[in-house]
Design a protein that fits this description.
The complex is a heterodimer of chains A (about 1050) and B (about 475). Chain A is of the alpha+beta class and about 1050 residues long. Chain A contains 39 helices and 22 strands. The longest helix of chain A is centred in the N-terminal third of the chain and has 34 residues. Chain A is globular, with a radius of gyration of 37 Å. In chain B, α7 packs antiparallel against α8 and α10 runs parallel beside α11. Chain B has one domain: 3-Layer(aba) Sandwich (Alkaline Phosphatase, subunit A). The chains are: A alpha+beta (about 1050), B alpha/beta (about 475).
């Protein structure tokens, strides 16, 4: 009943005076009397209505399912019991919502008195200790200095301390040593990098848009600018209120500061949802609601929030803010140097932008002209409005189609005109109100009434056109259509005569022309970027505009010289008031609602937003010291990252269903102090990490009995009788591996790059790794990286074998082990024990115990295995290029120099500057740019005997002139050859005698032209074992199965040892 | 508030569930707050399910129901003429387009199946055909999301992720949810097997079965830098270091990570073995036939046998079944690739006694129009457009009543008219067969308890054995 009826018969609305949200109200009924007779479903009006057996049919749109009706009947039959008596009544619910802790103003509670005044260093400690003492618990002893510096360094910078840092801190006798350390860490640029990443989880940051159609560039132009802005904001300790305001409305809060526009990536870096406006806006409301306010406003999209006092109207009030915004791409930085190269970049950029602008202008005009020609169709469409969705996302439209989005534009245009009973569409309105059944009968009367309407109230031309009574509404529409077509023709003629004409001479004709050309015309495509007006176009225009936009985007993304760009929101020129979508359905428009802030925060006296879309006003309402949520939510997040759990354990939901804070007064004290400190996040960190609470050791009290008591009283450590140990995040772990091997590239900012590029290395901080929402790397998923599709309140923490597989087998980890040993080898010492100690210091910042040293030495001196981990089959194959001398039956073979993880080729870039397109993969490859660069896959016989070859070569493109393939044996010359164009052909050799070391080459060149020369050519070679004496000899080779990259480098004993240290729990966990 | 759909009287259900811990799912995840899963998880079904694992043949692009499992002789009568009603789809369609394929009554049940799936049809008495499926919109992307994740648009966990969340993995040495697609990704890429707001470890693992090398099938499965013997020595040393570290600390997570290395070590051996179809006897390989589809189906069986919970077999990269033109050649060619492997799988599962607790699902993201598609010039290219208004999906094994037809489309196959079955209904049925009440398999996220079936859905009791 709630889902089907409450909207019209609930607390907000009582259609026909009926409410269905309490038993009393149901029994009392509405205008038609009681809705139910308890015990008698047969006599209950509601059953008649849902069964549709009488004249009343409810719910109006969709009949209830049979089982729903059965339940309803059963319920009435058993006397209509209502859970109200033991559940909260509506009033009680309102009361508990009103009293909910998170909606109360932030107080500034008095710091409680505690017994152990020596321990409590700060107000934070007093709040924590007071609760511990109340439970008869004691805090844990302070962590030792090594643990403390490791903890605070990770918490503030995401990196381990250096061995030197640890050493100097451990031995520093200055009582202010810890304070100095904290200040140094807060001032380091790595602080901003680390805390920016926490915020990027909140902001569901990604470098790509998620799934888009092929026509659209899938990379964002502006993601790195946003990320770098967040890093800077953190490092500059930008006051948190400004930090929020700029992310929502930098365009208005700091209109002169171009650089600040980058902040708005917070809104514009969400998924694109294939351009569906409602979902894009929903994503923005969610990231603002949960991210900044800790409110699940998204729940109110389809109905009033079930738990929190967020009516669905409030959702649409915010919806209206974003609905009135479009996007704007802006350059926000200047190049370092304006040299020739930059000028060339800029010339090309301007060219591409101009091409886009020209095409957009042309397409807008073309589409508008088509709509002007079809006014009759658009009018008639109004009578079948249900056939037209809000946006044309599900249909592919050609130029001649009636476009649903224009139908909807006409709808809202006509609605506006109706309010003023305009003189043009008055006729349409009157005829449209007739029912189809007796249209013909009543049309005469309407026509004659219309003829009598006061002169100025009806446009003369309209009156003339409708003089003879039309037979159907279609005819009315057609008459209007002809009228507008006529006006359009007159206007064209006038323009042809006098290009600078401003209006038609006839006032009535000019009034009609305004419908077609006026500023509010429903025929125009909004002058906006393709990202927000794509649905106005037919498929041909949409695709070509996106392609041109892609040309601009790609130029900015791929040019190293491109200065930073932002995508900001900007308010639309014409502001439309939002309407509620009933049950979240954009086709079911409900009441208009004002754009304004949430009732739960601003109260009943709140005022509608007044400026533009209201975005800046929204931002200020969020970033207000009066807002009870904003500061609490942020201090809780900061607390959470320091203590591994928030004071409120649902960091992005402070609503009715959240858990109350473990320390409510502390939360308020932190929030109020934070605001008083000018929203300074750094000072908040300082307060927290300098507290005794933070400095406790993580394993709890030394005394086992005391520990057990604490564990029994508070097993989850909610009262903080110890510090929480934590595992490193993915970023921290990867950065640590690079840091301890002394390889970390500390360069800040700039475009993102693959974290683990095939055939290369990325040694920058993980923050700068590419976040590709659509293809999030396995490594990131495996290590619980935040899902970039949605705001992420807190990361999952899973322990799965795939993490261990990465650690054991991924080259990234092995390379760090090699780097550690390479670094070691530069040091003068050769003493094994000293080297082990050095490794311990680098990796764990401590010396090994004696036993650990012994274990290391035992490991290092054990005999090493010689066996190769490669399958010997792979050794038979080589990958190269060269020229084939057909006459001599000889191939001039040169190995390809670069393996990118999947293919052998000329270099990391493909095509390579020197060697071009030549490439070999497991399955096939690509011919080279000329005959001397034919692709050559070489097999070398490991022993003498008879072999047979089965293979099929394929060229799978209809374009170009195809490829030529040969099999060439060293001893026998060309065995087979063919030219292939878009077809495949078997290449088999039944029997071939080879000596050990003989080669067989599989050669592909480009025929005559370089065009579509990729190929597939799997090859199987077999050599029966008996022909060579049997034993464990290999009997078959497969080009695809055996395909391998560079011969793997086995780690040496020291490197193996270093890798073990890198995998240890000691590195992965922070005490 | 009254909550239609619940047995009555039942006061204040939400509070009761929350108090009894079932609000967070009685599925354990006891420490689950704000969407995090820390530590070990207890997985348990709501009741004893008939199926323990799922294999889903996903014919991406949208196979035509009127050419496969939903015969429409009435189309012949209208051949070349407009149908009485043509619904709006993505593109324009014209006259009735009778199926170019012949249908034959099969098995004891006499259900008619087209020649395209003649070998699969030999198993029709084990199959329940749902002929009244409906999706929401006539486009691939939202329909893929709906069929795989239960919501057309918003990022939500996939069916496989939900199942893994509910049931856990049976074999820790293999990923619990595997999606195979020959040649690369289908449309919507990894979103089709996403974990959404569930922990990332429930996401499907993508495998391109065209590769044969194990390290191109599963990332990091092979250690290029050390032999197995060396790795064992490394791990022994590692565990001794970890033991030292653990001795001074009380933290279960340390144990969990220690265990994960041992699991990983075993996984290297087991995974390679699981994917190696060469270990199958000749007669089994012949049963499945040649080609990459036979290969991936046989791999799937080996995975299911080893305790992988959910396997999805996509037809191929992009959307191969999307026959806007030349449907006869398109469907004939594609069906030929999978008919034998599907039939072989059913035979093979049966002979191993696995069919009774393995749920086999066949279908696409929607069906196709019974009317012929028209191009921009109004000409036909003998293809069909997307049809979300009515299409077929079938299920077999795992507690499904074979030889059943559920629901029907209209005379032409344009829209479902009898026992209309939503994708939520389908998902509710899958979960039911696995032992879950779809309304109670929930996950608390962003302030509410989410479920696979959103706010509707009903298990189709009529097709349960």
């Amino acid at each position: 009943m709630l889902s089907s009826c409450a909207e019209c018969h609930g607390s907000k609305k009582q259609e026909s005076g009926l409410r269905l949200d309490s038993r009393e109200a149901i029994v009392k009924g509405g205008d038609r009397g009681p809705a139910i007779v308890p015990g008698k479903p047969g006599k209950s009006l509601i059953i008649e209505a849902v069964r549709r057996s009488g004249d009343l049919e409810m719910p109006p749109n969709e009949k209830l399912r049979a089982n729903q009706i059965a339940i309803l009947e059963h319920w009435i039959e058993i006397g209509a019991p209502w859970p109200g008596n033991d559940g909260p009544s509506v009033d009680k619910r309102a009361e508990s919502q009103r009293d909910h802790w998170a909606f109360q103003p932030v107080r500034q509670p008095a710091v409680p008195a505690v017994k152990d005044t020596a321990w409590a260093k700060s107000p934070i400690d007093a709040f924590v200790l007071a609760r511990l003492e109340a439970q008869k618990l004691k805090p844990s002893p302070p962590a030792d200095r090594r643990a403390l510096i490791r903890r605070v360094t990770y918490d503030l910078t995401g990196l381990p301390p250096t061995p030197a840092d640890v050493d100097s801190f451990a031995t520093d006798s200055d009582p202010a040593a810890y304070t100095k350390l904290v200040d140094k860490l807060l001032a380091s640029p790595q602080y901003g990098e680390h805390w920016a990443r926490h915020w990027l989880d909140v902001a569901r940051y990604a470098d790509t848009k998620g799934y888009v159609y092929g026509r659209e560039e899938r990379f964002f132009v502006h993601s790195s600018a946003y990320r770098d802005w967040v890093v800077r904001a953190m490092n500059d300790d930008l006051p948190y209120d400004q930090f929020l305001v700029l992310q929502l409305a930098a365009d208005q809060a700091k209109p002169d500061d171009q650089a600040a526009l980058a902040a708005m990536g917070y809104l514009t870096l969400g998924r694109r949802f294939l351009g569906v406006t409602h979902d894009i806006i929903d994503d923005r409301i969610d990231v603002v609601g949960r991210g900044m306010l800790g409110l699940t406003i998204g729940c109110a999209r389809c109905h009033d929030h079930k738990f929190d006092p967020i009516p669905t109207e409030d959702y649409y009030s915010l919806y209206g803010v974003f609905q009135n915004c479009t996007e704007r791409l802006t350059q926000i930085a200047e190049p370092a140097v304006r040299d020739k190269k930059y000028e060339a970049f800029e010339v090309e950029l301007t060219k591409r932008k101009q091409a886009l602008a020209n095409a957009m202008a042309k397409a807008r005009e073309e589409v508008a002209a088509a709509v002007r020609q079809k006014t009759g169709d658009y009018l008639f469409a109004q009578s079948q409005i249900e056939k037209y969705p809000e946006e044309t996302v599900s249909q592919i439209l050609s130029k001649d189609d009636v476009n649903p989005i224009f139908v909807r534009r006409w709808q809202s245009y006509l609605l506006k005109q109706a309010k003023s009973d305009d003189p043009i569409f008055i006729g349409w309105r009157r005829f449209a109100s007739l029912s189809a059944d007796d249209f013909a009968d009543r049309s005469r009367r309407v026509a004659s009434e219309l003829a009598k309407v006061n002169g100025a109230a009806v446009n003369r031309l309209v009156r003339d056109a409708l003089q003879s009574p039309p037979a159907s509404l279609k005819e009315v529409a057609d008459k209007y259509g002809r009228l507008f077509a006529d006006v359009e023709r007159q206007w064209r003629e006038l323009l042809a005569k006098k290009a600078d004409s401003k209006a038609l001479p006839d006032a009535d004709a000019e009034a009609l022309r305004q419908v077609l050309y006026g500023p509010q015309s429903p025929c125009e495509v909004p002058n906006e970027p393709i990202v927000s007006n794509e649905f106005y176009f037919d498929i041909t225009n949409t695709e070509s505009l996106w392609r041109l936009q892609g040309e601009v985007d790609r130029w900015l993304i791929q040019s190293p010289l491109a200065p930073a760009h932002a995508v900001a929101l900007v308010d639309r020129a014409v502001i439309e008031e939002p309407r509620v979508f009933r049950r979240g359905n954009p086709a079911a428009k409900g009441n208009e609602v004002p754009r304004r802030f949430l009732k739960v925060i601003s109260g009943d006296a709140r005022k509608p937003f007044e400026h533009g879309s209201g975005r800046l006003e929204l931002a200020r309402a969020i970033a207000s010291p009066e807002n009870p949520l904003t500061a609490r939510v942020w201090v809780n997040r900061v607390w959470m990252h320091h203590f591994a759990a928030g004071l409120v354990r649902t960091p992005s939901d402070f609503g009715m269903r959240s858990e109350p804070p473990t320390h409510p007064e502390l939360l308020d004290w932190l929030a109020s102090t934070f605001v008083r400190n000018h929203w300074s996040t750094k000072s908040l960190h300082r307060m927290i990490v300098l507290s005794a609470t933070y400095q406790q050791q993580s394993d709890g009290p030394m005394d086992e009995a005391v520990r057990q008591q604490a564990l029994t009283t508070d097993p989850e450590n909610r009262l903080l009788w110890r510090m929480n140990a934590r595992r490193l995040s993915f970023e921290e772990w990867r950065d640590t591996l690079l840091a301890v091997s002394s390889e970390l590239d500390g360069a800040m900012g700039g475009r993102a790059a693959e974290l683990f590029p095939a055939g290369g290395e990325n040694r920058r901080r993980t923050l700068y790794g590419l976040v590709d929402r659509q293809f999030l790397t396995t490594a990131m998923r495996t290590f619980d990286f935040a899902n970039p599709d949605l705001h992420a309140p807190q990361r999952s923490e899973t322990t799965v074998p795939q993490q261990a597989l990465f650690a054991m087998n991924h080259p990234f980890v092995a390379h760090r082990a090699q780097a550690l040993i390479a670094r070691m080898n530069k040091a003068p010492t050769t003493d094994a024990a000293a080297r082990v100690r050095q490794l311990y210091l680098w990796v764990y910042q401590r010396p090994p115990t004696k036993a650990q040293e012994q274990a290391a030495l035992a490991f290092l001196t054990a005999p090493q295995e010689k066996e190769a981990p490669v399958r010997p089959e792979t050794l038979a194959w080589q990958y190269g290029f060269g020229a084939l001398s057909e006459a001599e039956g000889r191939v001039d073979f040169h190995p390809l120099p670069h393996f990118n993880g999947k293919a052998w080729q000329g270099g990391p870039q493909w095509p390579d500057a020197a060697l071009g397109w030549v490439q070999l993969t497991a399955e096939g490859g690509h011919a080279g740019n000329d005959l001397p660069h034919a692709a050559v896959r070489r097999w070398t016989a490991p022993r003498a005997g008879k072999i047979s070859i089965k293979s099929t070569a394929a060229h799978q493109a209809p374009a170009g002139d195809g490829i030529r393939c040969w099999i060439v044996a060293r001893r026998h010359g060309v065995l087979a050859s063919a030219t292939l164009l878009n077809r495949q052909q078997p290449f088999d050799v039944a029997a071939l005698e080879v000596e050990k070391g003989d080669t067989v080459d599989f050669v592909v060149d480009f025929n005559a032209n370089l065009n579509n020369d990729q190929f597939v050519w799997p090859i199987e070679i077999s050599q029966p074992a008996e022909s060579s004496g049997g034993g464990g000899a290999i009997v078959s080779w497969s080009s695809s199965r055996d395909f391998a990259g560079e011969a793997p480098q086995l780690l040496g004993a020291w490197e193996q040892y270093a890798q073990v240290l890198l995998l240890g729990n000691e590195l992965m966990f922070v005490d | 508030m009254l909550d239609v759909g619940q047995r009555l009287p039942k006061p204040n259900r939400r509070e009761f569930l929350t108090r009894s811990g079932m609000g967070l799912g009685a599925l354990g995840l006891g420490g689950l707050l704000g969407g995090t899963a820390k530590g070990s998880q207890v997985h348990q079904t709501h009741f004893a399910g008939r199926a323990k694992r799922v294999i889903h043949f996903f014919l991406n692009g949208g196979p035509s129901h009127v050419d496969t499992f939903d015969p429409k002789p009435a189309l012949l009568k209208y051949a070349g003429r407009p149908l009485p009603e043509t619904l709006t789809t993505e593109r324009k369609t014209g006259a009735a387009f009778p199926s170019p394929f012949t249908f034959k009554k099969c098995g004891q049940s006499g259900i008619e199946v087209s020649e395209l799936f003649a070998r699969t049809a030999e198993h029709i008495d084990d199959i329940a055909v749902i002929r009244s499926m409906v999706a929401q919109v006539p486009n691939h992307e939202p329909s893929l999301m709906l069929m795989n994740c239960g919501d057309s648009v918003l990022p939500r966990p996939s069916v496989g992720a939900w199942v893994l969340y509910g049931m856990g993995a049976e074999n820790e040495n293999l990923p619990g949810f595997i999606a195979m697609c020959p040649g690369g990704y289908p449309v919507k890429d990894a979103e089709n097997w996403q974990s959404g707001f569930l922990p990332g470890s429930y996401q499907g693992t993508f495998i391109d079965p065209q590769f044969e090398q194990i390290d191109r099938l599963i990332e990091n499965i092979h250690g290029p830098h050390a032999t197995a013997t060396t790795q064992r020595r490394q791990l022994d040393l590692l565990q001794s270091l970890n033991a030292d570290h653990h001795a001074a600390r009380h933290d279960d997570r340390l144990d969990a990570r220690i265990q994960s290395f041992e699991l990983a070590f075993r996984m290297q051996i087991e995974a390679a073995e699981a994917f190696d179809v060469a270990r199958e006897p000749q007669y089994i390989r012949q049963l499945y036939g040649d080609g990459v589809h036979a290969r991936q189906t046989l791999i799937a069986r080996r995975l299911l046998e080893r305790g992988v919970r959910y396997v999805q077999l996509w037809h191929g990269a992009g959307q191969p079944w999307d026959a806007h033109a030349g449907i006869e050649a398109n469907h004939r060619g594609l069906a030929k690739q999978i008919d034998q492997p599907i039939a072989a799988l059913l035979t093979d599962l049966k002979q191993r006694g696995m069919l009774e607790d393995t749920l086999v699902i066949w279908g696409g993201e929607f069906g196709r129009t019974p009317s012929v598609e028209l191009n921009g010039n109004g000409l036909s290219a003998l293809g069909r457009d997307h049809n979300p208004y009515g299409f077929s999906v079938w299920m077999a094994g795992g507690g499904v009543r074979g030889g059943t037809i559920h629901g029907a489309t209209d005379d032409f196959g344009f829209k479902a008219i009898d026992r209309v079955t939503s994708v939520h209904d389908l998902h509710a049925t899958i979960l039911h067969l696995l032992g879950f009440d779809h309304e109670r398999l929930t996950y608390r996220y962003a302030g509410r308890d989410f479920r696979l079936t959103d706010v509707s859905g009903r298990a189709i009791r009529e097709i349960l054995a």
